[in-house]
Protein backbone atom coordinates (compact mmCIF):
# COMPACT_ATOMS: atom_id res chain seq x y z
CA UNK A 1 0.00 0.00 0.00
CA UNK A 2 1.55 3.32 -1.10
CA UNK A 3 1.20 6.53 0.86
CA UNK A 4 -0.23 8.20 -2.25
CA UNK A 5 -3.21 5.81 -2.09
CA UNK A 6 -4.10 7.30 1.31
CA UNK A 7 -4.48 10.87 0.02
CA UNK A 8 -8.08 10.60 -1.08
CA UNK A 9 -11.56 10.75 0.43
CA UNK A 10 -12.88 7.35 1.53
CA UNK A 11 -16.50 6.25 1.78
CA UNK A 12 -17.13 4.42 5.07
CA UNK A 13 -18.95 1.18 5.76
CA UNK A 14 -20.13 1.54 9.33
CA UNK A 15 -21.11 -1.07 11.94
CA UNK A 16 -24.63 -0.92 13.38
CA UNK A 17 -25.25 -1.84 17.02
CA UNK A 18 -28.55 -3.65 17.66
CA UNK A 19 -29.28 -2.72 21.28
CA UNK A 20 -32.76 -3.50 22.56
CA UNK A 21 -33.82 0.16 22.88
CA UNK A 22 -33.16 0.90 19.20
CA UNK A 23 -35.53 1.65 16.33
CA UNK A 24 -36.22 -0.81 13.53
CA UNK A 25 -36.99 1.97 11.04
CA UNK A 26 -34.96 5.17 11.55
CA UNK A 27 -31.47 4.07 10.46
CA UNK A 28 -32.81 1.99 7.53
CA UNK A 29 -34.91 5.00 6.42
CA UNK A 30 -31.91 7.31 6.78
CA UNK A 31 -29.98 4.97 4.48
CA UNK A 32 -32.91 4.88 2.00
CA UNK A 33 -33.58 1.20 2.62
CA UNK A 34 -37.16 0.11 1.96
CA UNK A 35 -37.24 -2.80 4.42
CA UNK A 36 -37.70 -2.69 8.19
CA UNK A 37 -34.80 -4.12 10.19
CA UNK A 38 -35.35 -7.50 11.85
CA UNK A 39 -33.61 -6.33 15.03
CA UNK A 40 -33.64 -2.87 16.65
CA UNK A 41 -30.88 -0.71 15.15
CA UNK A 42 -29.79 1.59 17.95
CA UNK A 43 -26.51 3.14 16.84
CA UNK A 44 -24.40 3.48 13.71
CA UNK A 45 -20.72 4.00 14.63
CA UNK A 46 -18.33 6.08 12.54
CA UNK A 47 -14.77 5.93 13.77
CA UNK A 48 -12.05 3.59 14.95
CA UNK A 49 -13.19 2.16 18.29
CA UNK A 50 -11.63 -1.28 18.71
CA UNK A 51 -15.02 -2.89 19.39
CA UNK A 52 -16.49 -1.77 16.05
CA UNK A 53 -14.32 0.20 13.63
CA UNK A 54 -15.61 1.63 10.37
CA UNK A 55 -14.22 0.02 7.24
CA UNK A 56 -12.99 1.41 3.91
CA UNK A 57 -11.95 0.02 0.55
CA UNK A 58 -8.37 0.69 -0.50
CA UNK A 59 -6.56 -0.85 -3.47
CA UNK A 60 -9.62 -3.08 -4.03
CA UNK A 61 -9.48 -4.54 -0.51
CA UNK A 62 -11.64 -3.69 2.50
CA UNK A 63 -9.74 -2.74 5.66
CA UNK A 64 -10.68 -1.29 9.03
CA UNK A 65 -10.26 2.47 9.36
CA UNK A 66 -8.38 1.78 12.59
CA UNK A 67 -5.78 -0.25 10.69
CA UNK A 68 -5.45 2.17 7.76
CA UNK A 69 -4.82 5.16 10.04
CA UNK A 70 -2.03 3.22 11.73
CA UNK A 71 -0.23 2.85 8.36
CA UNK A 72 0.55 6.58 8.25
CA UNK A 73 -1.01 8.64 11.07
CA UNK A 74 0.60 11.88 9.83
CA UNK A 75 -1.11 11.69 6.44
CA UNK A 76 -4.42 10.49 7.85
CA UNK A 77 -4.71 12.55 11.04
CA UNK A 78 -2.30 15.43 10.64
CA UNK A 79 0.82 16.13 12.68
CA UNK A 80 -0.91 17.92 15.58
CA UNK A 81 -3.65 15.31 16.10
CA UNK A 82 -1.25 12.38 15.72
CA UNK A 83 1.12 13.88 18.31
CA UNK A 84 -1.59 14.85 20.78
CA UNK A 85 -3.64 11.66 20.64
CA UNK A 86 -1.01 8.95 20.23
CA UNK A 87 -1.62 8.40 16.49
CA UNK A 88 -5.33 7.68 17.03
CA UNK A 89 -8.56 9.31 15.91
CA UNK A 90 -9.82 10.76 19.23
CA UNK A 91 -13.56 10.93 18.52
CA UNK A 92 -16.43 8.56 17.73
CA UNK A 93 -19.39 9.80 15.68
CA UNK A 94 -22.76 8.06 15.87
CA UNK A 95 -26.30 8.10 14.58
CA UNK A 96 -28.44 7.27 17.62
CA UNK A 97 -32.05 6.04 17.26
CA UNK A 98 -33.91 5.52 20.55
CA UNK A 99 -37.36 3.96 20.28
CA UNK A 100 -37.43 3.38 24.05
CA UNK A 101 -35.43 4.77 27.00
CA UNK A 102 -31.75 4.08 27.50
CA UNK A 103 -30.34 3.23 30.92
CA UNK A 104 -29.83 5.93 33.53
CA UNK A 105 -26.08 6.39 33.28
CA UNK A 106 -22.96 8.51 33.51
CA UNK A 107 -19.49 8.26 32.04
CA UNK A 108 -16.23 8.08 33.98
CA UNK A 109 -13.53 10.71 33.98
CA UNK A 110 -10.15 9.89 32.46
CA UNK A 111 -8.46 8.85 35.72
CA UNK A 112 -11.33 6.58 36.75
CA UNK A 113 -11.49 5.00 33.28
CA UNK A 114 -7.77 4.22 33.22
CA UNK A 115 -7.89 2.72 36.70
CA UNK A 116 -11.06 0.68 36.05
CA UNK A 117 -9.87 -0.63 32.68
CA UNK A 118 -6.53 -1.71 34.12
CA UNK A 119 -8.22 -3.48 37.05
CA UNK A 120 -10.65 -5.42 34.84
CA UNK A 121 -7.79 -6.39 32.53
CA UNK A 122 -5.97 -7.84 35.53
CA UNK A 123 -9.08 -9.88 36.27
CA UNK A 124 -8.97 -11.18 32.66
CA UNK A 125 -12.54 -10.08 31.90
CA UNK A 126 -12.97 -10.02 28.09
CA UNK A 127 -13.63 -6.51 26.74
CA UNK A 128 -16.89 -7.64 25.11
CA UNK A 129 -18.14 -9.41 28.26
CA UNK A 130 -21.48 -8.39 29.80
CA UNK A 131 -19.73 -8.54 33.18
CA UNK A 132 -17.37 -5.75 32.18
CA UNK A 133 -17.84 -2.09 33.17
CA UNK A 134 -14.84 -0.52 31.41
CA UNK A 135 -14.49 -1.31 27.68
CA UNK A 136 -11.47 1.00 27.24
CA UNK A 137 -9.29 3.41 29.20
CA UNK A 138 -10.83 6.66 27.95
CA UNK A 139 -13.30 9.17 29.30
CA UNK A 140 -16.48 9.90 27.31
CA UNK A 141 -17.69 13.49 27.17
CA UNK A 142 -20.41 13.64 24.50
CA UNK A 143 -22.67 15.96 22.55
CA UNK A 144 -26.04 15.08 21.03
CA UNK A 145 -27.73 17.07 18.24
CA UNK A 146 -31.34 16.17 17.54
CA UNK A 147 -32.48 14.95 14.12
CA UNK A 148 -36.07 14.48 15.32
CA UNK A 149 -37.94 15.67 18.39
CA UNK A 150 -35.83 14.33 21.24
CA UNK A 151 -36.42 13.87 24.98
CA UNK A 152 -33.82 13.14 27.63
CA UNK A 153 -33.01 13.39 31.32
CA UNK A 154 -29.78 15.23 32.04
CA UNK A 155 -28.19 16.54 35.23
CA UNK A 156 -29.75 17.02 38.66
CA UNK A 157 -32.40 19.64 39.28
CA UNK A 158 -31.69 22.14 42.08
CA UNK A 159 -32.19 20.26 45.35
CA UNK A 160 -34.71 22.87 46.57
CA UNK A 161 -37.00 21.97 43.66
CA UNK A 162 -36.54 18.25 44.29
CA UNK A 163 -37.39 18.50 48.00
CA UNK A 164 -40.36 20.82 47.36
CA UNK A 165 -41.83 18.40 44.83
CA UNK A 166 -41.31 15.38 47.10
CA UNK A 167 -43.07 17.25 49.92
CA UNK A 168 -45.94 18.25 47.63
CA UNK A 169 -46.40 14.61 46.66
CA UNK A 170 -46.30 13.49 50.30
CA UNK A 171 -43.32 11.19 49.84
CA UNK A 172 -41.42 12.11 53.03
CA UNK A 173 -42.08 8.80 54.81
CA UNK A 174 -40.94 6.82 51.76
CA UNK A 175 -37.75 8.83 51.26
CA UNK A 176 -36.56 9.54 54.84
CA UNK A 177 -33.73 11.92 53.91
CA UNK A 178 -36.27 14.32 52.39
CA UNK A 179 -37.17 15.36 55.96
CA UNK A 180 -33.71 16.78 56.45
CA UNK A 181 -33.39 20.52 55.93
CA UNK A 182 -29.95 20.58 54.34
CA UNK A 183 -30.28 21.79 50.76
CA UNK A 184 -26.90 20.91 49.33
CA UNK A 185 -25.33 18.38 47.01
CA UNK A 186 -24.20 16.15 49.91
CA UNK A 187 -27.82 15.74 51.02
CA UNK A 188 -28.94 15.10 47.44
CA UNK A 189 -26.34 12.35 47.22
CA UNK A 190 -27.76 10.69 50.38
CA UNK A 191 -31.33 10.95 49.07
CA UNK A 192 -30.49 9.55 45.66
CA UNK A 193 -28.31 6.69 46.86
CA UNK A 194 -30.83 5.69 49.52
CA UNK A 195 -33.39 5.37 46.75
CA UNK A 196 -31.15 3.46 44.33
CA UNK A 197 -29.59 0.97 46.79
CA UNK A 198 -32.76 -0.70 48.06
CA UNK A 199 -33.06 -4.44 47.37
CA UNK A 200 -35.52 -5.63 44.73
CA UNK A 201 -38.30 -6.69 47.13
CA UNK A 202 -38.33 -3.26 48.74
CA UNK A 203 -38.07 -1.59 45.37
CA UNK A 204 -41.25 -3.19 44.00
CA UNK A 205 -43.21 -2.29 47.13
CA UNK A 206 -41.97 1.28 47.23
CA UNK A 207 -42.50 1.81 43.50
CA UNK A 208 -46.12 0.69 43.81
CA UNK A 209 -46.75 3.08 46.71
CA UNK A 210 -45.16 6.07 45.01
CA UNK A 211 -46.90 5.40 41.68
CA UNK A 212 -50.24 5.41 43.53
CA UNK A 213 -49.31 8.73 45.15
CA UNK A 214 -48.50 10.18 41.73
CA UNK A 215 -51.80 8.90 40.30
CA UNK A 216 -53.69 10.91 42.94
CA UNK A 217 -51.53 14.04 42.58
CA UNK A 218 -52.44 16.97 40.38
CA UNK A 219 -49.66 18.26 38.14
CA UNK A 220 -49.22 21.98 38.78
CA UNK A 221 -47.56 22.91 35.48
CA UNK A 222 -46.39 21.56 32.12
CA UNK A 223 -43.10 20.45 33.64
CA UNK A 224 -44.84 18.21 36.20
CA UNK A 225 -47.16 16.82 33.53
CA UNK A 226 -44.07 15.62 31.63
CA UNK A 227 -42.38 14.32 34.80
CA UNK A 228 -45.40 12.28 35.86
CA UNK A 229 -45.91 11.01 32.31
CA UNK A 230 -42.37 9.68 32.08
CA UNK A 231 -42.44 8.07 35.52
CA UNK A 232 -45.55 6.12 34.48
CA UNK A 233 -43.94 5.05 31.19
CA UNK A 234 -40.71 3.96 32.86
CA UNK A 235 -42.58 2.06 35.59
CA UNK A 236 -44.48 0.11 32.92
CA UNK A 237 -41.16 -1.03 31.41
CA UNK A 238 -39.16 -1.51 34.64
CA UNK A 239 -41.66 -2.20 37.46
CA UNK A 240 -38.93 -3.23 39.96
CA UNK A 241 -36.37 -0.52 39.24
CA UNK A 242 -36.13 2.61 41.40
CA UNK A 243 -34.60 4.38 38.42
CA UNK A 244 -38.18 4.99 37.25
CA UNK A 245 -38.20 7.99 39.62
CA UNK A 246 -35.25 9.66 37.89
CA UNK A 247 -37.57 12.33 36.40
CA UNK A 248 -38.14 13.57 39.97
CA UNK A 249 -34.38 14.22 40.27
CA UNK A 250 -33.11 15.04 36.79
CA UNK A 251 -33.81 17.81 34.30
CA UNK A 252 -36.24 16.77 31.58
CA UNK A 253 -34.88 18.09 28.28
CA UNK A 254 -36.83 18.48 25.05
CA UNK A 255 -34.92 19.21 21.85
CA UNK A 256 -36.15 20.21 18.42
CA UNK A 257 -34.19 19.15 15.32
CA UNK A 258 -30.91 21.07 15.23
CA UNK A 259 -30.81 21.70 19.00
CA UNK A 260 -28.02 20.16 21.07
CA UNK A 261 -26.63 19.65 24.56
CA UNK A 262 -23.28 18.55 25.95
CA UNK A 263 -22.68 15.96 28.68
CA UNK A 264 -19.48 15.98 30.72
CA UNK A 265 -18.07 13.03 32.67
CA UNK A 266 -20.05 12.39 35.85
CA UNK A 267 -23.34 13.89 34.63
CA UNK A 268 -26.26 11.49 35.17
CA UNK A 269 -28.51 11.21 32.12
CA UNK A 270 -30.82 9.02 30.07
CA UNK A 271 -31.99 9.45 26.48
CA UNK A 272 -35.73 8.75 26.54
CA UNK A 273 -36.74 8.80 22.88
CA UNK A 274 -35.83 10.38 19.58
CA UNK A 275 -32.99 10.29 17.08
CA UNK A 276 -29.87 12.36 16.73
CA UNK A 277 -26.23 12.67 15.74
CA UNK A 278 -23.95 12.05 18.69
CA UNK A 279 -20.24 12.72 18.99
CA UNK A 280 -17.96 11.75 21.87
CA UNK A 281 -14.42 10.95 22.86
CA UNK A 282 -13.48 7.56 21.43
CA UNK A 283 -14.92 5.43 24.23
CA UNK A 284 -17.69 2.98 25.07
CA UNK A 285 -17.49 3.32 28.87
CA UNK A 286 -20.93 3.47 30.50
CA UNK A 287 -21.62 3.38 34.26
CA UNK A 288 -25.26 2.34 34.66
CA UNK A 289 -27.52 3.02 37.63
CA UNK A 290 -30.78 1.47 36.47
CA UNK A 291 -33.44 1.18 33.74
CA UNK A 292 -31.55 -1.59 32.01
CA UNK A 293 -31.08 -5.34 31.76
CA UNK A 294 -27.32 -4.78 31.49
CA UNK A 295 -24.82 -4.60 34.32
CA UNK A 296 -25.61 -1.95 36.96
CA UNK A 297 -22.61 -0.70 38.94
CA UNK A 298 -23.76 1.73 41.64
CA UNK A 299 -20.37 1.87 43.45
CA UNK A 300 -18.52 2.85 40.26
CA UNK A 301 -21.31 5.25 39.28
CA UNK A 302 -21.19 6.94 42.69
CA UNK A 303 -17.46 7.58 42.34
CA UNK A 304 -17.97 9.81 39.32
CA UNK A 305 -21.40 11.43 39.80
CA UNK A 306 -21.71 15.22 39.91
CA UNK A 307 -24.58 16.04 42.30
CA UNK A 308 -24.56 19.76 41.56
CA UNK A 309 -27.27 21.35 39.41
CA UNK A 310 -24.80 22.39 36.71
CA UNK A 311 -25.00 19.25 34.57
CA UNK A 312 -27.34 20.45 31.84
CA UNK A 313 -25.40 22.37 29.16
CA UNK A 314 -27.40 23.33 26.09
CA UNK A 315 -25.19 24.39 23.19
CA UNK A 316 -26.18 27.25 20.92
CA UNK A 317 -24.61 26.83 17.47
CA UNK A 318 -22.34 29.50 16.02
CA UNK A 319 -23.37 30.10 12.40
CA UNK A 320 -21.03 31.19 9.60
CA UNK A 321 -22.50 31.08 6.10
CA UNK A 322 -24.08 27.61 5.69
CA UNK A 323 -22.28 25.94 8.62
CA UNK A 324 -23.49 25.90 12.25
CA UNK A 325 -20.87 24.80 14.79
CA UNK A 326 -21.67 23.30 18.21
CA UNK A 327 -18.69 24.19 20.39
CA UNK A 328 -18.08 22.40 23.69
CA UNK A 329 -15.14 22.67 26.08
CA UNK A 330 -13.44 19.46 25.00
CA UNK A 331 -10.22 18.67 23.11
CA UNK A 332 -11.27 15.52 21.22
CA UNK A 333 -14.07 16.72 18.96
CA UNK A 334 -16.11 19.47 17.39
CA UNK A 335 -19.40 18.98 15.55
CA UNK A 336 -21.02 21.19 12.94
CA UNK A 337 -24.06 21.02 10.70
CA UNK A 338 -23.81 22.06 7.05
CA UNK A 339 -26.68 22.80 4.67
CA UNK A 340 -25.63 22.69 1.03
CA UNK A 341 -27.88 24.06 -1.72
CA UNK A 342 -27.44 24.63 -5.43
CA UNK A 343 -27.00 28.32 -4.65
CA UNK A 344 -24.63 27.80 -1.74
CA UNK A 345 -22.01 25.03 -2.05
CA UNK A 346 -19.57 24.27 0.77
CA UNK A 347 -15.83 24.79 0.40
CA UNK A 348 -13.25 23.75 3.01
CA UNK A 349 -9.75 25.09 2.38
CA UNK A 350 -8.71 25.43 6.02
CA UNK A 351 -7.83 21.89 7.04
CA UNK A 352 -6.55 21.31 10.56
CA UNK A 353 -7.47 17.66 11.26
CA UNK A 354 -8.95 14.54 9.76
CA UNK A 355 -12.71 14.75 9.28
CA UNK A 356 -15.75 12.53 9.06
CA UNK A 357 -18.72 13.83 7.08
CA UNK A 358 -22.16 12.24 7.54
CA UNK A 359 -25.02 12.95 5.14
CA UNK A 360 -28.42 13.01 6.86
CA UNK A 361 -30.51 14.07 3.89
CA UNK A 362 -30.35 14.76 0.15
CA UNK A 363 -27.48 14.01 -2.17
CA UNK A 364 -24.49 15.71 -3.68
CA UNK A 365 -20.90 15.50 -4.87
CA UNK A 366 -17.64 15.92 -2.92
CA UNK A 367 -14.71 17.04 -5.09
CA UNK A 368 -10.98 17.29 -4.34
CA UNK A 369 -7.91 17.61 -6.55
CA UNK A 370 -9.08 16.02 -9.79
CA UNK A 371 -11.36 13.46 -8.09
CA UNK A 372 -14.97 13.36 -6.92
CA UNK A 373 -17.31 11.13 -4.92
CA UNK A 374 -21.09 11.00 -4.74
CA UNK A 375 -22.70 11.04 -1.29
CA UNK A 376 -26.34 10.61 -0.27
CA UNK A 377 -28.46 10.20 2.85
CA UNK A 378 -27.06 7.74 5.38
CA UNK A 379 -23.59 7.68 3.82
CA UNK A 380 -20.42 9.00 5.40
CA UNK A 381 -16.83 9.65 4.37
CA UNK A 382 -13.43 9.92 6.03
CA UNK A 383 -11.26 12.81 4.85
CA UNK A 384 -7.53 12.58 5.67
CA UNK A 385 -5.81 15.75 6.86
CA UNK A 386 -3.49 15.54 3.85
CA UNK A 387 -6.38 16.60 1.58
CA UNK A 388 -5.62 20.28 0.99
CA UNK A 389 -9.13 21.35 -0.04
CA UNK A 390 -12.52 19.95 -0.98
CA UNK A 391 -15.89 21.28 -2.10
CA UNK A 392 -19.43 19.94 -1.87
CA UNK A 393 -22.22 20.68 -4.34
CA UNK A 394 -25.81 19.48 -4.45
CA UNK A 395 -28.77 19.70 -2.08
CA UNK A 396 -27.98 17.95 1.16
CA UNK A 397 -27.61 18.15 4.95
CA UNK A 398 -24.28 17.12 6.46
CA UNK A 399 -22.72 16.76 9.88
CA UNK A 400 -18.98 17.41 10.09
CA UNK A 401 -16.82 15.95 12.85
CA UNK A 402 -13.29 17.31 13.38
CA UNK A 403 -10.66 17.63 16.10
CA UNK A 404 -10.46 21.27 17.29
CA UNK A 405 -6.68 21.71 17.29
Task: Please characterize this protein's 3D structure.
This protein has 405 residues and is an alpha+beta fold. Among the domains are: 158-248, no CATH class; 318-402, Jelly Rolls. The protein is built from 10 helices and 22 strands. Strands 1, 15, 16, 17, 18, 19, 20, 21 and 22 form a 9-stranded antiparallel sheet that branches. The two termini are 29 Å apart.
SSE blueprint:
Elements lengths: L9 E2 L4 E2 L8 H5 L12 E4 L8 E4 L2 E4 H7 L1 H5 L1 H6 L6 E8 L5 E3 L3 H13 L19 E5 L3 E7 L2 H10 L16 H12 L3 H17 L5 H16 L12 E6 L4 E4 L5 E13 L5 E4 L7 H7 L8 E3 L2 E3 L2 E4 L7 E7 L5 E3 L6 E14 L2 E6 L3 E4 L6 E13 L3
Antiparallel strand pairs: 1-21, 2-3, 3-6, 4-5, 6-12, 7-13, 8-11, 8-12, 9-10, 9-12, 11-14, 15-16, 16-17, 17-22, 18-22, 19-20, 19-21, 19-22
Kindly list the characteristics that best describe this protein.
single chain; 405 residues; alpha+beta; Jelly Rolls; nine-stranded antiparallel sheet; 10 helices; 22 strands
Entry summary:
The chain has 405 residues and is of the alpha+beta class.
Major sheet details: 9 strands, antiparallel
Q: How many β-strand runs?
A: 22
- Unreliable runs: none
Give the CA-based shape.
Answer: globular
Strand content: 25-35%
- Helix proportion: 10-25%
- Alpha-beta content class: alpha+beta
Amino acid sequence: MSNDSLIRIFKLRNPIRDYEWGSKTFIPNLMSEETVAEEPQAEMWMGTHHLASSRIKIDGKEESLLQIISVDPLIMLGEKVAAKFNNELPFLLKVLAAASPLSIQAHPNKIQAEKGFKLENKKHIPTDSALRTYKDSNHKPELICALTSFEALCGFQPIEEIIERFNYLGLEEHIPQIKESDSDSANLKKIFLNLMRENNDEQSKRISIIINKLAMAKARNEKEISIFKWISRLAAIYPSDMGVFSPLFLNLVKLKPGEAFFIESGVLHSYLNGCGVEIMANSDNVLRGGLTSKKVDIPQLTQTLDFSSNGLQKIEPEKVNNEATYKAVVTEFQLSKINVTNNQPYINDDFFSAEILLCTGGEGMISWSESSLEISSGESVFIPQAIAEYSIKGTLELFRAVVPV
